[in-house]
Amino acid sequence: MRSLPNWAVTGLSILLVLSAWVAVTRLGLVRDLFLPGPRDLWLGLQELLDEGYKGRTLPEHLGMSLLRVGTGFLTGALAGTALGLAMGVSRKLDAMAAPFIEFLRPLPQLAYLVLLIVWLGIGEGSKISMLFLAALPVAAVAARDGVRNIPPERLRMAAALGASPRQVFWHVVAPSALPEILTGARLALGIVYATLIAAEIIAGSSGIGWMILDAGRFLRSDYAFVGILVIGLTGIAIDRLLLWLERRIVHWAGR
Amino acid sequence: MPDLPVPLPSLAAAPPRRPRRPLPLPAYGAGAVAAMLVAWWAVSGGRLVPAELLPAPLQVWQALTEVLREGYRGTTLAENVLSTLGRLGGGFGLAVLTGVPLGLWMGRNRIAGAAIDWIIQFLRPLPPLSYMILLILWLGTGDASKTALLFLTAFPIIVAASAAGLRGVKRQRIQAAEALGASPSQVFRHVILPSAAPMIFTGLQIALAAAFSTVVSAELMAASDGLGWMVISASHFLRNDIIILCILLLGLLGIALAWALRLLDRRLVHWRGRD
Amino acid sequence: MTRPGFVRFDEVSVRYGEGAGAVLALERADLAFAQGDFVCIVGPSGCGKTTMLQTLAGFLRPTGGTVSLDGRPVEGPAPERGVVFQQPTLFPWMTVAANAGFGPRMRGENRAQARERVEYWLRTTGLWEFRDRYPYELSGGMQQRLAIARALCNEPKVLLMDEPFGALDALTREHMQEELHAVWRRTGMTVVFITHSVEEAVYLGTEVVVMSPRPGRILERIPLPFAREAADQDIRRVKSGAGFIAARERVLSLIWGMQHDA
């Protein structure tokens, strides 16, 4: 045990959990309603891929969710980053925007979704507005802090080398803040993703989050399990993708 | 005029201007909030937007006094705030009590770390609401499933932060303590734990924020009290004034929670970022 | 008072890694010196000086040979061997006084005694008035002084210092050299001191050990008179004397030659 490498320990642990799962479901210790076995999940996945759930296949549900996530995230992160950069440069603007940002950031997104639904209806508009509002403060705070944390010598040096304020902003301030902006974007995307799933569960009629809830209501826990696994793996994949992009774009970060 | 950390204009030897006393920065914040209130008042209450859609500030204020005086559908506002905070405290507290020791153990014991980490890594990015339906299936619609949900929201964040905090302790600091004659258990208590404390505390703050968001979602989905329940119930009765009131309360509550933890953080780990 | 072989390295080798990728960080180092000596180890990067110090501190187990102090082999870190690193490595959650008293407290020493010694060393290092502050409120030089005071409060038999002044500015560095010199003269303590600065080594050391890299080994040992002679002399006067400059150039040319051979 002591000499086993980490990956082997992890592998053994995964194997142990999987075999416990198989054993428990095979022996009928737990009803498959509560914990479907591997076979049930596999069949459920096949059905979701072939026939779909209530008119849409699993990839279609997932695609709808990701489209919402993408739209809300991109608009919110772009607007937030622009606002944050401006807040980083101007203390006055920061003082003016901060109360709203600070209010919005810890606010549970689903609470204002209800209001947005009253205003915009239950369709895409309310969900995407909510995602926009979820991403915006996170991106804004990251961009502002990114600008604030630039070492002053770097700005002085750029000015001393003859850069105009506009040049300093585009050639020094923006790239210097980029690592924090991208880290903030990754954080925002995680929040947007989790928020959307919650929104689909509470007020949806399509999308993977809604599929889980609906399947759970009709006691199709095999579908619900497949949905949860897909959500988890997709979330990890999105995060990895963004991390990879981040490392490529700001290869100088932390050096 | 941009005021960067270094005011750029000052670099460019600008001609001297008559100094004017600038407004203090908080005044800008107060001004912005006041402007927002005026704008809200101007468009709301039937002036531009129907009052049912966007009640005026005064109507929201009246809703507050009404709820304080008469309660909301048989519950008082304080009861609802307290049941939200109670759920939050229960799930989060449980996660702290179990997550910190587990994370510390994983950070110290390589085998434990490698065996458990993959579970944490899978749980962490999973949106909590996605498995809410399973928890309801397993534990029923009562508070048990909500406590479990909040626990599972905070737990992986706390475990990961505690383990990372422990692994991040500088080797040389441990060596310094050993060379001064500290025993392994003394090194753990007096050096490793305090060194990991800033990161553990950061984890607690993130976990509490996540749990706060989740508790409201859970109450929207299935509850018979709490601020989240008030929001969804008010929406059924088209009481937008109550919804806005609850949103304002939730925002203030969120700020207060974050602020309280930050204050605690500054007192308990005053050396954060300074070693 | 002085006993030969107070600190002994017998054929000490340290190898990192295994097989073809193994690096011989230290090859059969043989060194013995007496109680009260101030031994400075110099040499280019990768010559194994820090490795050598780590084996004496007990942080690193040699792959061959033995290290011993006062006749007993070194088996691990112990309070009889005080250590000061290049970074002060203080405990930021403890006050200055608590940092200094850490060792005695951990060993469960009599409180009154420990307090007395903490006060003595904090006064000696000029930190007494800052005793209730936190380390991050001190300047870099004061932090390093506290690290030294903390090691001394343990009354170690030998003080091991790994480039303790390497991160300080030139002026502070000279002051620290002078203060350390005074402490050493007053206590007669045994010190092993690693540095990149040949001048520092020649000023402080009763002996300079020159090491060469790849594999790390001891090249030459040079006894020096300045540390014992320079009783109350001003540091600048010592360092500008003809004898001092000659000794400094001799050590420098050894290291210089090494780099050209490589």
From TrEMBL, chain A:
<keyword id="KW-0812">Transmembrane</keyword>
<feature type="transmembrane region" description="Helical">
    <location>
        <begin position="100"/>
        <end position="122"/>
    </location>
</feature>
<dbReference type="GO" id="GO:0010438">
    <property type="term" value="P:cellular response to sulfur starvation"/>
</dbReference>
<dbReference type="GO" id="GO:0005886">
    <property type="term" value="C:plasma membrane"/>
</dbReference>
<feature type="transmembrane region" description="Helical">
    <location>
        <begin position="66"/>
        <end position="88"/>
    </location>
</feature>
<comment type="function">
    <text>Probably part of an ABC transporter complex. Probably responsible for the translocation of the substrate across the membrane.</text>
</comment>
<dbReference type="Pfam" id="PF00528">
    <property type="entry name" value="BPD_transp_1"/>
</dbReference>
<keyword id="KW-0472">Membrane</keyword>
<dbReference type="InterPro" id="IPR035906">
    <property type="entry name" value="MetI-like_sf"/>
</dbReference>
<feature type="transmembrane region" description="Helical">
    <location>
        <begin position="187"/>
        <end position="212"/>
    </location>
</feature>
<keyword id="KW-1003">Cell membrane</keyword>
<feature type="transmembrane region" description="Helical">
    <location>
        <begin position="128"/>
        <end position="147"/>
    </location>
</feature>
<dbReference type="GO" id="GO:0042918">
    <property type="term" value="P:alkanesulfonate transmembrane transport"/>
</dbReference>
<keyword id="KW-0813">Transport</keyword>
<protein>
    <submittedName>
        <fullName>Taurine ABC transporter permease</fullName>
    </submittedName>
</protein>
TrEMBL record, chain B:
<feature type="transmembrane region" description="Helical">
    <location>
        <begin position="147"/>
        <end position="166"/>
    </location>
</feature>
<dbReference type="GO" id="GO:0005886">
    <property type="term" value="C:plasma membrane"/>
</dbReference>
<dbReference type="GO" id="GO:0055085">
    <property type="term" value="P:transmembrane transport"/>
</dbReference>
<feature type="transmembrane region" description="Helical">
    <location>
        <begin position="199"/>
        <end position="222"/>
    </location>
</feature>
<feature type="transmembrane region" description="Helical">
    <location>
        <begin position="88"/>
        <end position="106"/>
    </location>
</feature>
<feature type="transmembrane region" description="Helical">
    <location>
        <begin position="242"/>
        <end position="264"/>
    </location>
</feature>
<dbReference type="InterPro" id="IPR035906">
    <property type="entry name" value="MetI-like_sf"/>
</dbReference>
<feature type="domain" description="ABC transmembrane type-1">
    <location>
        <begin position="81"/>
        <end position="261"/>
    </location>
</feature>
<keyword id="KW-1003">Cell membrane</keyword>
<dbReference type="GO" id="GO:0010438">
    <property type="term" value="P:cellular response to sulfur starvation"/>
</dbReference>
<comment type="similarity">
    <text>Belongs to the binding-protein-dependent transport system permease family.</text>
</comment>
<feature type="transmembrane region" description="Helical">
    <location>
        <begin position="25"/>
        <end position="43"/>
    </location>
</feature>
<keyword id="KW-0813">Transport</keyword>
<keyword id="KW-0812">Transmembrane</keyword>
<dbReference type="Pfam" id="PF00528">
    <property type="entry name" value="BPD_transp_1"/>
</dbReference>
Automatic annotation (TrEMBL), chain C:
<keyword id="KW-0813">Transport</keyword>
<dbReference type="GO" id="GO:0005524">
    <property type="term" value="F:ATP binding"/>
</dbReference>
<dbReference type="InterPro" id="IPR050166">
    <property type="entry name" value="ABC_transporter_ATP-bind"/>
</dbReference>
<feature type="domain" description="ABC transporter">
    <location>
        <begin position="7"/>
        <end position="238"/>
    </location>
</feature>
<dbReference type="InterPro" id="IPR017871">
    <property type="entry name" value="ABC_transporter-like_CS"/>
</dbReference>
<protein>
    <submittedName>
        <fullName>Taurine ABC transporter ATP-binding subunit</fullName>
        <ecNumber>3.6.3.36</ecNumber>
    </submittedName>
</protein>
<comment type="similarity">
    <text>Belongs to the ABC transporter superfamily.</text>
</comment>
<keyword id="KW-0067">ATP-binding</keyword>
<dbReference type="GO" id="GO:0016887">
    <property type="term" value="F:ATP hydrolysis activity"/>
</dbReference>
<keyword id="KW-0378">Hydrolase</keyword>
<dbReference type="Pfam" id="PF00005">
    <property type="entry name" value="ABC_tran"/>
</dbReference>
<keyword id="KW-0547">Nucleotide-binding</keyword>
<dbReference type="InterPro" id="IPR003439">
    <property type="entry name" value="ABC_transporter-like_ATP-bd"/>
</dbReference>
<dbReference type="InterPro" id="IPR027417">
    <property type="entry name" value="P-loop_NTPase"/>
</dbReference>
<dbReference type="InterPro" id="IPR003593">
    <property type="entry name" value="AAA+_ATPase"/>
</dbReference>
